[in-house]
Amino acid sequence: MAGGAPDLLVVGGGVWGSWTALQARRLGATVQLIEEREPGGPKTTSGDYSRIIRHSHGEDALLMGWTQRALVAWKELGEAAGEQIFMESGVAWFVSGDGIWEAHSEQRMREAGVPCERITPEEALHRWPTLGTDGLTSVLYEPTAGFLRAGNGVRAAARMFEREGGVITRGRATPAADGSALDASGRPIAAGATVWAAGPWLPELFPQLVGADAEASITPVRRDAIYFDAPHMGVGEIPTWIDEGLAVWGIPNDQGHGVKVGPEFDAGSFDPSVWPDEAHPTSIARARECAVRFPALKSAPIKETRACQHERTKSGHYVLDQHPENPAIWLAGGGSGHGYKQGPMVGELMARAALHKDPMQLPDRRFKLHDRSEGPSSPMGEMGLA
């Protein structure tokens, strides 16, 4: 780049933006990444301590395949960065509802050779003695899945991007009328192409494309996380778990942060410019109510709470598409609570598309700005499972 315009400008240093920048650099492009805050910082969508990575996607073979490839990339990133980002805790789907999602997921995983087991409540209790089995009919277990150390993963991707010759600029960018980027002073930022991966700020930046009235509308909503002080419930002692029927998920205690519990509860709308310091009281109460799978959590002390948000689309599908009026501009957003794990795949897709490097073809309309296909890609509508 050396003072000239980069081949690619990426706006937003979250998981999708950092991976897009890194993948583009690995394709040989000159790349500039603009991020107002620290990549992987605590008050960002991709921050916090952990996110689930699971192969189960119901009947969706595409996203299951993406997860298989993304998991390899996350492991390779950890090796290159010299730290463990992926934790193989296993993911247990506790079936207390109709079990349709889990049945479809099991079928797809077995067809693809992804390791999975169907175990009885009695077998589950033997494996995890702190488990509560009330209302439990079976468990679909993914032994090779688990969780990602989220903030660490974003920071590692950003470091690798810089190490491999990319440029990170701290600052804010806004779109011009044609979607190209302007700096904080309103001056154009020259680039061959631009990818906007601005997370919850995307609807404000592009209201006509992803605002409230758009077909591909993205709505930032508040979904908080509660960390319970339960040191005896670490990796190997309990799995990462999801219970669709009870509308809750959890991640084992890791590095002393506590057991993370995420209830399916919208604690209101979310303004990303005014990020609360703690979870909403109702979120905390709901987490205790839903924690029946591990009854000790109902009375465990709270170690920490986090006000979290995810940018939800109506269908639960991502927005990964070209600006309708400017072919050099691309938008990546709407993670809908399950997009973190797909960072390497989204990054590769966006980098190849923007740079015209043998683009990965999108197989259907699900990710388009217009004429989007319907159907949730997450088992609880848009539950924050990632």
Features:
386 residues; alpha+beta; D-Amino Acid Oxidase, Chain A, domain 2; 9 helices; 21 strands; globular; disordered C terminus
What can be said about this structure in brief?
The protein is of the alpha+beta class. The chain contains 9 helices and 21 strands.
SSE order and pairing:
Layout: E1 8-11, H1 15-26, E2 31-35, E3 50-53, H2 61-81, E4 86-87, E5 91-95, H3 100-112, E6 117-119, H4 121-127, E7 138-142, E8 146-149, H5 150-163, E9 167-170, E10 174-175, E11 181-182, E12 193-196, H6 202-205, H7 207-210, E13 218-222, E14 225-228, E15 240-243, E16 248-251, E17 259-263, H8 281-290, E18 302-306, E19 309-313, E20 319-323, E21 326-333, H9 343-355
Parallel strand pairs: 1-2, 1-12, 2-9, 5-15, 12-21
Antiparallel strand pairs: 3-8, 4-8, 5-7, 6-7, 10-11, 13-19, 14-17, 14-18, 15-16, 16-17, 20-21
Give the N-terminus to C-terminus distance in angstroms.
35 Å
The stretches of 5 or more residues where confidence is low (pLDDT under 50) are 380-386
Helix content: 25-40%
Helix/strand-derived class? Answer: alpha+beta
Q: Biggest sheet, strands in spatial order?
A: 6-7-5-15-16-17-14-18
Percent of residues in beta strands? 15-25%
Biggest pleated sheet = 8 strands, mixed
Description:
The protein has helices at residues 15-26, 61-81, 100-112, 121-127, 150-163, 202-205, 207-210, 281-290, 343-355; strands at 8-11, 31-35, 50-53, 86-87, 91-95, 117-119, 138-142, 146-149, 167-170, 174-175, 181-182, 193-196, 218-222, 225-228, 240-243, 248-251, 259-263, 302-306, 309-313, 319-323, 326-333. With 386 residues, the protein is α+β, with helices and mostly antiparallel strands. It has a domain at 88-144 and 220-310: D-Amino Acid Oxidase, Chain A, domain 2 (2-Layer Sandwich). The chain has an eight-stranded mixed β-sheet. A six-stranded mixed β-sheet has the order 9-2-1-12-21-20, covered by helices on one side. It has a three-stranded antiparallel β-sheet with strand order 3-8-4. The longest helix is centred in the N-terminal third of the chain and has 21 residues, at 61-81. The radius of gyration is 20 Å and the shape is globular.
